[in-house]
Specification:
Elements lengths: L4 H5 L4 H14 L18 E3 L24 E4 L5 E6 L7 E7 L13 H8 L12 H7 L8 E5 L4 E7 L4 H16 L5 H18 L2 H13 L14 H4 L4 H11 L5 E7 L3 H12 L21 E8 L6 E10 L7 H26 L7 E9 L3 E10 L4 H18 L3 H21 L5 H14 L6 H14 L2 H11 L4 E8 L11 H13 L27 E7 L4 E6 L4 E6 L7 E7 L13 H12 L6 H7 L6 E6 L4 E7 L4 H13 L5 H18 L3 H13 L11 H5 L3 H12 L5 E6 L3 H11 L27 E6 L6 E8 L6 H25 L7 E6 L7 E9 L4 H18 L3 H18 L3 H9 L7 H7 L1 H6 L3 H11 L5 E8 L7 H12 L1
Parallel strand pairs: 3-7, 8-12, 15-19, 20-24
Antiparallel strand pairs: 1-2, 2-3, 4-6, 4-7, 5-6, 9-11, 9-12, 10-11, 13-14, 14-15, 16-18, 16-19, 17-18, 21-23, 21-24, 22-23
Helix pairs in contact: 3-6, 3-9, 5-10, 11-13, 11-15, 11-16, 12-17, 13-15, 18-21, 20-25, 26-27, 26-28, 26-32, 27-32, 27-33, 29-30
């Protein structure tokens, strides 16, 4: 229910990051045996209109039963295997197919820790119908890509296998069901394959290692003492994984991969009777391989009083403060009353969230980010928490502030204006869900079904949810909201967690925990006044433009693309494309200026600092918080984006708010906001990001790595604190307004809107702007980036205790504008990625997720970088870099095979067929900038056909041109003290590559 601008801007502070990482992990957890996937009550195959929401009996006189979504078809075979089907038609010709296994790490014994996840890996490494190495080739051959279209994940209580089929016909369904059958019952678990995959699993463990993950792991025993969850992270334990053998994996597989413990979920454009027949034919032979056993006892826990947890991580970017309650309660049956309690509690949480947001945006808080949330996970763990992140030096005041804000809400409650704001937003979400239902995407739908399956909840349609909840939301009172909030925080304890980069002095008489408790208790003695009601202002506030709308001097319809192009008298260009890809979705982009390419050399970091400053400033006459209040109940949001070669105001809106959309864009042009408090918040967010990034190999790639690949050009790096402090608000204002006030403007709108209505609004508002210049800012030819080549290996050291390194091999490519070359280099990168997977991951077992990509520049002539990235153990850097160079050497000398080319292109073609039916593709790839670059329209016409025409000979020619030592460089980012590749060895490797 909560919409937080923070997330749309992508400024994830450590507090937010770990708060929602925690929710991501724990929201997956349900006690095994409670989900309806366990229900094997029927001996005969049957088709149901809905799954029973629980095995527990209901009393219909006291609690009405929730009606399920009538579009669901649920069946159970004689062996207990269940399936849930749902017809859906977006995207066209894609079926989202998933095998849900009601078992995860909570089902492991002590000697099996990591077995559920290891087994998930092994099901891609040999099964009845797919010998080792053949499954991925098979999937690629039918148009699917590993990762995007075929994947798997292991949680605490579940393992899920995903396949996004390229079609819903019988043949495609058979192909997908064959793979799912092998997952369910066909694992070979060959010893050689287990030994080979062991390195991959350990590499995945290494890749996940970070300050935030270490903190998360350390918190679990404190939060869940005596609960099995605290000792069952899905990744497992390294000492167990190193000795994991076939016996342990086979035991877990046979015990939990039972037909009555699995459910198949399928959503997409398919014939339901055909799908049911195929499922029955494929899975009716499944049988248990061992007797049924009860899942391990998850244990219990209890908290009382005030408990303190302190865990320092110097490599974190900030300090995180959390106040929390955790209660172990009996599971509840999903019902109307449960849904009522949930929505009222969520509304109460959102009111407190709005208060926290206001504190941050008005600089009244000592922290830079804050969030609150409550709910149930594990099926029987009720939680509530309020969390803040910021400077270590302000930890005492941060703890005091969130304690007092929480107590203010509990003591004095809320005011009517706060409730009305949240009421509008909640009704908006319910209404939008109904409007968007006809074109929902199949994969999110399927994942929602799986989530409800694991939580033992009834799956309802958006129409049902609106009918159920809207009357409650419309009539709920302040007293009911206050009662719900009090219940959320009614536990007889408070858990106080302080983590991150705070280093507290410690002594026997004054340990950190005692210091934290002292601050908390002192805060509890501070009186808190009641909240003050704040009146909302109205938007729009600018005078309407005069009654003489901007004249259209040209209007052209491009029939085959469905695009209408308009040029207004003042020079504003407009591109419009009404679509039916997604109902109620409207997207727009107002493009101006030259983007980060115009960042002055004297002000490095101006771009990264400008974007959050402008977004957090709101408008000239309305700060961001006031604007959000004025837009309560609306679904239109505007963000500044600074791309490589342009600025743009990006808009997300809905069909009924196109006038508001144009009014907001008009206000951002005529009355942009620039505020000192917003600049200071932006500085602090970037400082925190820099501190965290400078202590990780991935972060140092952002800070220094990409800058090195651009010849030291600061526009490709991340500014340090000194650079950020040197930038003033006038610097930001001058840089942006110089290009916004009179420069070229181009508006592109795509989605579910009426063409003539938008034209009227555009003429009225944007047509009233002063006459625009026709030329975009010229590129300074003296400031073009240049990738260094022929300089061996560049080493970047990181002050970190996390033992991993990033190896990057790069080759100078070209800019974007030869589209045929760009497309073919993209395919070549996919082939390179596949060879990395086979050689570095599967053969060497040295990394988890290696990848390659080509990054051609749209802004800088002749600049592009073809690059391969791998995360490895520091002592493997030299061997892995040599292996990457061997791949490049082989491609440059021996080329691409026709089979490789075919397997790379088929998934791309599947993706293109889907992408062409999305608003985002037309907005971002075709319409934006088409006034300046009309060739983009032609690219849309031959998008699919050109990829279909790509040959292995063309790719081989490009490999021989670009993947050669004369165009190469490399960098290794590793902890301080890690072994470096000597210049002599680097040059030797280069000479070898020349042979």
């Amino acid at each position: 229910m909560i919409h937080n601008r923070f997330f749309r801007f992508g400024r994830f502070s450590e507090a937010y990051r770990r708060f929602f990482v925690l929710m991501f992990f724990l929201a997956l957890v349900g006690i095994p045996g409670l989900g309806f996937a366990q229900d094997s009550a029927s001996a005969a195959e049957q088709v149901e209109t809905c799954p029973p929401p629980s095995t527990e009996k209901r009393d219909p006189s006291s609690d009405p039963v929730l009606a399920p979504d009538p579009n669901l078809v649920v069946g159970r075979l004689e062996n207990g295997f269940r399936y849930i089907l749902m017809p859906n038609h977006r995207p066209e010709n894609r079926v989202s197919l998933h095998l849900y296994v009601n078992a995860g790490s909570l089902n492991e014994t002590d000697s099996q820790q990591g077995a559920a996840h290891f087994l998930e890996h092994m099901l891609f490494n040999g099964s009845t119908h797919f010998p080792p190495g053949k499954l991925i080739h098979y999937l690629q051959g039918i148009g699917m890509q590993l990762g995007n279209d075929a994947n798997a994940r292991t949680g605490f209580d579940q393992t899920v296998y995903d396949i996004i089929l390229p079609g819903g016909d019988a043949e495609n369904l058979q192909n997908g069901l064959l793979v799912m059958f092998d997952y369910a019952a066909g694992a070979l678990l060959l010893e050689d394959e287990i030994d080979q995959e062991r390195g991959v699993v350990l590499s995945e463990m290494r890749s996940r290692d970070s300050a935030s993950y270490r903190t998360f792991e350390a918190e679990l025993p404190f939060r869940f003492p005596g609960f099995l969850l605290a000792n069952r992270l899905p990744i497992g334990k390294a000492e167990v994984l190193r000795h994991m053998d076939r016996g342990a994996l086979k035991s877990f597989y046979d015990t939990w991969y039972r037909p009555d413990n699995m459910t198949l979920v399928m959503v997409g454009p398919m014939d339901i009777p055909t799908a049911e027949w195929l499922i029955q034919a494929r899975f009716m032979s499944l049988a248990p391989r061992t007797p049924a056993v009860d899942p391990p006892d998850p244990g219990t826990f209890h908290h009382q009083g005030v408990k303190i947890f302190y865990h320092p991580e110097p490599e974190a970017g900030e300090t995180t403060i959390r106040i929390e309650t955790l209660r172990h309660e009996p599971p509840v049956v999903d019902s109307v009353q449960v849904r009522y309690r949930e929505v009222v509690a969520a509304m109460a949480d959102e009111i407190l969230q709005n208060r926290l947001d206001t504190l941050v945006k008005t600089q009244a808080a000592p922290f830079t980010s804050a969030a609150t949330n409550s709910g149930v996970y594990l099926g029987q763990v009720r939680y509530s928490q309020i969390v803040a992140g910021g400077n270590a030096e302000k930890w005492q005041s941060s703890l005091s502030t969130i304690e007092q804000e929480l107590r203010r809400a509990l003591t004095h409650g809320f005011v009517e204006s706060e409730l009305e704001r949240v009421r509008k937003n909640t009704l908006k979400h319910l209404d939008n869900a109904v409007r968007e239902a006809p074109t929902r995407n199949s994969t999110p739908l399927a994942k929602r079904i799986i989530r409800y399956l694991s939580e033992n909840r009834v799956i309802q349609s958006p129409e049902q949810e609106k009918a159920l909840l809207s009357p409650l939301v419309e009539s709920v009172t302040l007293e009911e909201i206050q009662t719900a909030f009090s219940d959320t925080w009614s536990a007889d304890h408070r858990l106080i967690l302080v983590t991150g980069n705070l280093q507290l002095a410690s002594s026997v008489s004054d340990p950190p925990e005692k210091q934290i408790q002292s601050i908390f208790e002192a805060s509890q003695n501070v009186d808190v006044p009641p909240p003050i009601s704040t009146e909302s202002r109205s938007f729009p506030y600018l005078p309407e433009p005069n009654d003489d709308p901007g004249r259209v001097i040209s209007r052209k319809t491009i029939s085959d693309l469905g695009i209408t192009q308009i040029l207004l008298k003042n020079g504003v260009r407009v591109n419009l494309k009404p679509t039916v890809y997604k109902t109620n979705e409207v997207m727009a982009n107002l493009v101006f200026g030259g983007g980060r390419a115009t960042e002055p050399a004297s002000l490095p970091g101006l771009g990264p600092l400008t974007q959050p400053t402008v977004d957090e400033s709101g408008l000239g006459a309305m700060d961001a918080d006031t604007l959000e209040r004025a837009l309560a109940g609306k679904s239109t949001y505007v963000d500044l984006r600074i791309r490589e070669g342009a600025f743009d105001f990006f808009v997300e809106s809905v069909s009924s708010e196109v006038e508001l959309m144009v009014q907001l864009l008009y206000a951002h042009v005529v009355d942009p906001g620039f505020r000192e408090d917003a600049l200071e918040r932006a500085r602090e967010w970037l400082r925190q990001d820099y501190r965290s990034s400078s202590r990780s190999i991935e972060g140092m790639m952002k800070i220094e790595g990409f800058k090195y690949l651009a010849g030291g050009d600061a526009r490709f790096g991340m500014p340090d604190e000194r650079a950020m402090d040197a930038i003033s608000l006038p610097d930001i204002r001058n840089w942006l307004t110089t290009q916004l006030d009179l420069g070229p403007l181009e508006l592109s709108v795509v989605g579910d809107f009426d063409l003539e209505t938008v034209i009227v609004q555009v003429r009225k508002y944007l047509g009233a702007l002063p006459k625009r210049k026709t030329n975009a800012p010229a590129m300074d030819p003296s400031r073009l980036p240049m990738m260094p080549v022929g300089k061996g290996v560049h080493h970047i050291s990181v002050e970190t205790q996390i033992p991993k390194a990033l190896v990057v091999a790069a080759w100078k490519s070209e800019d974007y504008w030869d589209i045929g070359r760009t497309r073919r280099l993209s395919v070549l990168a996919d082939i390179f990625s596949e060879r990395l997977r086979k050689q570095i991951r599967e053969t060497l077992g040295a990394t988890y997720s290696p990848y390659a990509y080509n990054r051609p520049s749209r802004a800088y002539p002749e600049y592009g970088v073809f690059q391969a990235h791998t995360t490895v153990s520091p002592d493997q850097s030299e061997a892995v870099l040599a292996a990457i160079r061997d791949i490049a050497l082989d491609l440059s000398e021996n080329g691409v095979t026709p089979n490789e080319c075919r397997r790379a292109i088929q998934p791309i073609l599947t993706s293109i067929r889907e992408t062409r039916h999305t608003n985002g593709y037309w907005l971002n790839s075709v319409m934006i900038g088409s006034g300046q670059f009309p060739q983009q329209l032609e690219w849309a016409r031959d998008f699919l056909e050109d990829y279909e025409a790509i040959t292995s000979a063309e790719l081989s020619r490009l490999a021989s041109m670009y993947l050669v030592p004369q165009r190469a460089t490399a960098l290794v980012i590793a902890p301080i003290g890690a072994p470096e590749i000597s210049q002599e060895k680097a040059e030797s490797n280069d000479r070898g590559a020349d042979l």
